[in-house]
């Protein structure tokens, strides 16, 4: 009997040894990821709209906007403006949520930016209008001009040249919008597009009405004035295009970011004098068009463009200084105002 028990124990021992060392159960590792909780308040009333919870540290503000949209479907991400302070700037979509955190709870203020449109839609709409409107006046519709007077009066060659130059200008803008400029998915309020269209479309109607009118008189100095202005216009258009191509190449070449600089193309050498040659060429185009057509509406439009382009150039120049020379941005800004660099 004892011998039988010993044999059984021996077999069990042999079985255990042949199976190898018993493995200990795996230890469960607890996650150390800290999730954030984003509290969103109304910027006016300071009332809580919603809380976005379980936000990973790697999330961006755009991720928070998408989660906010799921909780409040009436506000899609492009019309949501979020601020750290009530009077502070709107935060960019690309900012990392962890960089905003002081604790596990982040408080943001919400502003409804209104209905938004993409930048590509904005520019295509703004530039397509003037192109089509001018052509409607150029063909002298009977609903715009007197039919008998239109048939009787001879069109001066500058009228045809002006139509060509005007169409060329806006076709260039449209093609650059589609193939040169790169928009990073940004949006702008719909009201901005309405204001821009009202400005460009309205002035185009006024300009085209005068130039294509049956009683339009050619410039005072005749063909020489027209030829000189047309040549200047074409040079400015070419310069504007080459500057935009150079800027697009520098922004998306993948190299080290630097202050915009000229290339081997002579049209880009204007970078040696100003920070934003594209605005300089744009102003040059409209001044040339004014000299070529010698009409008051074009002159007023060119004057307004000088003001607008100067404001845009000054703003972009300050952004360049802040981005590339932050330690000298104040002193450089003072020099640029005195030296008219922008």
TrEMBL record:
Localization in the cell: Endoplasmic reticulum; Membrane
The principal localisation class reads: endoplasmic reticulum
> Do you know which InterPro entries this protein is assigned to?
3-oxo-5_a-steroid_4-DH_C (IPR001104), SRD5A/TECR (IPR039357), TECR-like_N (IPR049127), TECRL_Ubl (IPR047822)
Highest taxon in the source lineage: Eukaryota
The GO annotation for biological process reads: very long-chain fatty acid biosynthetic process
Which GO cellular component terms are attached? endoplasmic reticulum; membrane
* Gene Ontology terms, MF aspect: oxidoreductase activity, acting on the CH-CH group of donors
What PROSITE patterns does this protein map onto? S5A_REDUCTASE
* Residues annotated as transmembrane: 117-137, 192-211, 226-247, 267-289, 295-313
User: Per UniProt, what is the membrane topology?
Assistant: Multi-pass membrane protein
Concerning Pfam families, the annotation shows: Steroid_dh (PF02544), TECR_N (PF21696)
Going by the UniProt record, its keywords in alphabetical order are: Endoplasmic reticulum, Membrane, Oxidoreductase, Transmembrane, Transmembrane helix
Q: Which residues form the TECR-like N-terminal domain?
A: 36-112
Q: Where is the 3-oxo-5-alpha-steroid 4-dehydrogenase C-terminal domain?
A: 188-327
- The reply to whether Transmembrane helix figures as a keyword in the UniProt entry is yes
Query: What protein family does this chain belong to?
Result: Belongs to the steroid 5-alpha reductase family.
User: What is the protein name stated in its UniProt record?
Assistant: Trans-2,3-enoyl-CoA reductase-like
Native species: Patagioenas fasciata monilis
Gene from which this protein is expressed: TECRL
């Amino acid at each position: 009997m004892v011998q039988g028990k010993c044999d059984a124990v021996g077999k069990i021992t042999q079985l255990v040894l042949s199976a190898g060392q018993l493995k200990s159960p795996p230890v469960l590792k607890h996650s150390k990821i800290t999730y954030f909780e984003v509290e969103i308040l109304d910027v006016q009333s300071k009332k809580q709209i919603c809380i976005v919870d379980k936000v990973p540290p790697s999330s961006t503000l755009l991720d928070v906007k998408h989660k906010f949209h799921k909780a409040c479907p009436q506000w899609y991400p492009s019309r949501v403006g979020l601020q750290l302070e009530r009077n502070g700037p709107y935060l960019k979509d690309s900012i990392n949520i962890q960089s905003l955190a002081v604790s596990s709870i982040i408080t943001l203020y919400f502003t409804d930016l209104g209905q938004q449109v993409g930048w590509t839609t904005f520019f295509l709409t703004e530039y397509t209008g003037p192109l089509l409107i001018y052509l409607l006046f150029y063909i002298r519709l009977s609903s715009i001009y007197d039919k008998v007077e239109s048939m009787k009066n001879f069109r001066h060659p500058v009228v045809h040249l002006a139509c060509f130059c005007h169409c060329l200008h806006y076709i260039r803008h449209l093609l650059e919008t589609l193939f040169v400029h790169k928009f990073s998915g940004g949006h702008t309020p719909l009201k901005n597009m309405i204001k821009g269209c009202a400005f460009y479309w309205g002035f185009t109607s006024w300009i085209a009405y005068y130039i294509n009118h049956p009683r339009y008189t050619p410039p005072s100095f005749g063909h020489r004035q027209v030829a000189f202005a047309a040549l200047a216009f074409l040079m400015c258009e070419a310069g504007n295009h080459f500057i935009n191509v150079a800027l697009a190449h520098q922004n998306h070449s993948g190299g080290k970011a630097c202050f915009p600089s000229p290339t081997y193309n002579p049209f880009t050498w204007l970078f040696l004098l100003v920070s934003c040659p594209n605005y300089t060429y744009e102003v040059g185009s409209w001044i040339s068009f004014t000299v070529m057509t010698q009409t008051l509406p074009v002159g007023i439009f060119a004057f307004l463009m000088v003001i607008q382009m100067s404001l845009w150039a000054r703003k972009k120049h300050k952004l360049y200084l802040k981005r590339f020379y932050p330690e000298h941005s104040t002193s450089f800004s003072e020099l640029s105002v005195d030296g008219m660099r922008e």
